[in-house]
Q: What sequence folds into this?
């Protein structure tokens, strides 16, 4: 209860975020209350693709958020394609006379912009 009081009274999180009805909600349900922003993967087994698992000699932990997820959260948009930088590219390509369909344009924009945003350059 102490944590609840701090969130409500000190930080100012509104009461509906703590409703009793939300206890039935879990990550991955259809209510969209939870959004995965950061994930941690503990790799312990190798799957051979046929349902057989063997323990790895070198276990590891992979963690990360990803620039795309952070941009979506910071800009309060539902999709990477709605982030301002990607929208600029999509809008520019959409005005091109060779435009055919929006989906291939979006795929091309993401493919072209991701290495550039990551400061990767061809060797």
A:
């Amino acid at each position: 209860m102490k944590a609840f009081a701090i969130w409500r009274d000190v930080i100012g999180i509104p009461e509906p975020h703590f409703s009793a009805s939300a206890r039935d909600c879990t990550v991955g349900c259809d209510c969209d209350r939870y959004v995965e922003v950061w994930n941690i993967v503990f790799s312990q087994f190798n799957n051979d693709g046929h349902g057989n698992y063997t323990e790895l000699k070198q276990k590891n932990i992979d963690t990360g958020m990803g620039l795309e997820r952070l941009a979506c959260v910071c800009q309060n948009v539902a999709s990477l394609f709605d982030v301002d930088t990607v929208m600029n590219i999509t809008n520019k390509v959409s005005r091109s006379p060779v435009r055919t369909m929006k989906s291939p344009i979006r795929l091309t924009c993401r493919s072209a912009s991701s290495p550039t945003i990551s400061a990767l350059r061809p060797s």
Summary: Residues 102-117 form the longest helix (16 residues). The radius of gyration is 21 Å. The mean pLDDT is 74. The helical segments are 2-11, 67-75, 84-94, 102-117.
